[in-house]
Design a protein that fits this description.
With 447 residues, this protein is an alpha/beta fold. Helices cover 36% and strands 22% of the residues. The protein has a six-stranded parallel β-sheet with strand order 2-1-3-4-5-6, sandwiched between helices. A five-stranded mixed β-barrel has the order 17-18-19-21-20. It has a three-stranded parallel β-sheet with strand order 7-10-13, sandwiched between helices. It contains 15 helices and 21 strands. The structure holds S-adenosylmethionine and FE3-S4 cluster (F3S). The site of FE3-S4 cluster has 10 residues, from α8.
């Protein structure tokens, strides 16, 4: 049986796409996924180009696979994702060992591209954006544990001035509601209990319904909440400019919607937000959070920050730090701005020294880390419902599950078969840097 090794860089969308590639190649060619590249016949790199470093990593990675490829005739290397989308044919010219080049919207054509490359002994390349055709051609997803991702929309039409994604993934396209519901159904039938709705901007979801009407994210959440065996709903990522009252209302009315939200803000200064073309102000962002906290006082918030955007002043940065205090994020992804060729911001003049950007980033990360610690400490002594996902990594008869607020909890397993896939109540005893420790409160009532 042929073996497939996939290396994934970047975001959750890429993780999702990689698992769909595995499903697809299993169905078309019987490929089994392996974690040992030496056993593999096909190597796929699912790449990311959101920052320069991520992009460079792909080419140095490809350099390392030269020997792997020549060690056995017939081995095939494919490159997908955003670097492939951006570079297209140039990628196959620059890295001669590459046989397949495909974009985020053409991964469903992998089986054909593989056949083509074998037949012609030349690179097979397809990085087009053929609308939503991708989903029509993918097989039913295979669940891997009690949690699963379901992609509800693709691409992004926001064109933030710093971001490459609209150019590599194409414009926003939503999957029809019935397709989404069929995928959720298939996953629930395999024992899934928690679904994360996935997309670059999931709150831009506008799915066609059977009667011709349009379903938005809030309505989708209300519909999914009626699925009896679905215990928890998450979504990521959403865009602050489209976070309307209907979504706040969904938090108020649907207890299955997890008390956690990732809402990228990027900067706390209106001047910078304007230059970034984010489409909201600092006040509007904070107002959204105020409304959310009014209906869900214990919601956990996380965000994305870009530090050192061209011309960012000390005062702009202080406004970002102040926004962090007001919003009380308990986690965040933060990076120094990285110019991306072809984006408008890449042409902006930038006088901020690299060392200053690094200092700002370090200060921001230290504060977020502190806030995260305070958030975890506040959980000690509380009772949290966790979805039990697997045995704990460190073993010792412990199980691991996640709280609604997206924190991992390790706790001693009860006697009998491991309750993987069940929602159980746990009392939190201790907050460690990366996880919580707790003990079961009861095992009988929860389904
Ligand atoms: N859709 C999301 C939103 O509402 O902003 C963001 C998706 S983007 C692929 C993920 C994150 O990468 C962004 O939130 C941003 O913080 C970061 N990012 C994007 N372009 C970047 C750049 N040129 N330099 C540094 N970070 C960048
Ligand atoms: Fe990028 Fe802005 Fe879209 S950060 S993914 S262009 S919302």
């Amino acid at each position: 049986m042929s073996k497939l090794f996939i290396k994934t860089f970047g975001c959750q969308m890429n993780e999702y796409d990689s698992s769909r590639m595995a499903d697809l190649l299993k169905e078309s060619h019987g490929f089994e996924v392996t974690t040992d590249p030496e056993a593999a016949d096909l190597l796929l790199l699912n790449t990311c180009s959101v920052r320069e470093k991520a992009q460079e990593k792909v080419f140095s990675e490809l350099g390392r696979w030269k020997e792997w490829k020549s060690a056995r005739p017939g081995r095939v290397i494919g490159v997908g994702g955003c670097v492939a989308s951006q570079e297209g044919e140039a990628l196959a010219r620059r890295a001669r060992i590459v046989d397949l080049v495909f974009g985020p919207q053409t991964l469903h054509r992998l089986p054909e591209l593989l056949e083509q490359a074998r037949r012609t002994h030349a690179p097979a390349i397809d990085v087009r954006f053929p609308e939503i055709e991708k989903f029509d051609r993918l097989p039913e997803p295979r669940a891997d544990g009690p949690t699963a991702f379901v992609s509800i929309m693709e691409g992004c039409s926001k064109y933030c001035s710093f971001c490459i994604v609209p150019y590599t993934r194409g414009e926003e396209v939503s999957r029809p509601l019935d397709d989404v519901l069929a995928e959720v159904d298939a996953l629930l039938a395999q024992g899934v209990r928690e679904i994360t709705l996935l997309g670059q901007n999931v709150n831009a979801y506008r799915g066609r319904m059977a009667d011709g009407a349009t379903c938005d994210l809030a309505l989708l959440i209300h519909i999914l909440a009626r699925f009896e065996t679905l215990g928890r709903i998450r979504f990521t990522t959403s865009h602050p400019a489209e976070f309307g009252d209907a979504l706040v209302e969904a938090y108020a009315r649907e207890p299955k919607l997890a008390g956690y939200l990732h809402l990228p803000v990027q900067s706390g200064a209106d001047r910078v937000l304007g230059m970034m073309k984010r489409g909201y102000t600092r006040a509007a962002y904070l107002e959204t959070i105020r409304k959310l906290r009014a209906v869900r006082p214990d919601i956990a918030l996380s965000s994305d920050f870009i530090v050192g955007f061209p011309s960012e002043t000390a005062d702009d940065f202080e406004q970002t730090m102040d926004l962090i205090e007001q919003a009380r994020f308990d986690s965040a992804y933060s990076f120094v701005y990285s110019p991306r060729p072809g984006t408008p911001a890449a042409n902006l003049r930038d006088g901020v020294p690299a060392a200053v950007k690094q200092q700002r980033l370090a200060r921001l990360q230290a504060r977020i880390h502190e806030l995260g610690g305070e958030f975890a400490a506040r959980l000690v002594g509380t009772r949290q419902t966790v979805l039990v996902e697997r045995p704990a990594r460190k073993g010792g008869g412990q199980l691991a599950g996640r709280t609604a607020c997206n924190r991992w909890v390790n706790f001693p397993a009860p006697a009998g078969p491991a309750p993987i896939g069940r929602f159980l109540d746990v009392r939190i005893d201790e907050a460690l840097p990366n996880s919580l420790r707790g003990r079961l409160v009861q095992t009988s009532a929860a389904p």
